Amino acid sequence: MRLSCPICGERDRREFHYGGAALERPAPEAGAAAWDAYLHLRENPAGRSRELWYHESGCTAWLVVERDTVTHEIHGVTLAAGGR
Amino acid sequence: MAELIALSPAGAALPKRIGAVTLTEAPFAPMTGISPHAGEVAQVSAALEAAHGLALPGPGRMLSGAGIEVLWFGRNRWLLIGAAPGDGLAAHAALTDQSDAWVSVIVQGAAGVDVLARLVPVDLRPRAFAEGSVIRTELFHMPAAIARTGAEDLRVMCFRSMAGTLVHDLVTAAEAVAARG
């Protein structure tokens, strides 16, 4: 598997570290149920998923990777920090 | 005060010539990590240019001047080699002295790319990795920075504590390449 880092270009999977599902953080006052789900509940999708990957031995950027867990196809890689 | 003996990271293990490849340790040079404060990359670049005549290079690039090099060194990070950081930089960036933190080995010779191909998961041939290119990657599981400083010159940098392993890995790979003739 290879990931196209927006900063470094296409790199081997061994340079990256998996960082879990890329979730939207709930607002502080969203309530216990929303925060419980954010902290503890995870989907296990067969198909498209949004994941965080850390370019550990490259530029050290956190990336949001859209990946198909069935076909291993990569649909997109963006910086988790956006343009910052 | 006691007179201390300065030891280079690779020490007596280098230089070495193996087949058509020469491994030498780069001479000691002051190194400073430059991490611009949030949103202040342009100010740091201007301050660097005023003090040292070089701007901050873009991702994957390096710039050299008179005895001075500036390497892109990761996301929003750069490394200044060859001079103490000039005035004006500290106001816009976090500066860290890394002079003793790295071991730098210069891999010289056309077969240098074949040696590193055995250790690094990135294409370092000149057409993919031209002069003035820099990458952060790994070398046999060690974090490394590699720069092409000349047509047949590659500079490999690893953490100083891993100098022995780096030399061992480079020598082993170079011997294997040389054995193929």
TrEMBL record, chain A:
Pfam families: SoxD. GO terms for biological process: tetrahydrofolate metabolic process. One of its GO terms (molecular function) is sarcosine oxidase activity. InterPro entries: SoxD, SoxD_sf. Coiled coil: none annotated. This is Sarcosine oxidase subunit delta. The gene is soxD.
UniProtKB/TrEMBL annotation, chain B:
It comes from the Bacteria. SUPFAM superfamilies: Folate-binding domain. This is Sarcosine oxidase subunit gamma. It comes from Pseudooceanicola nanhaiensis.
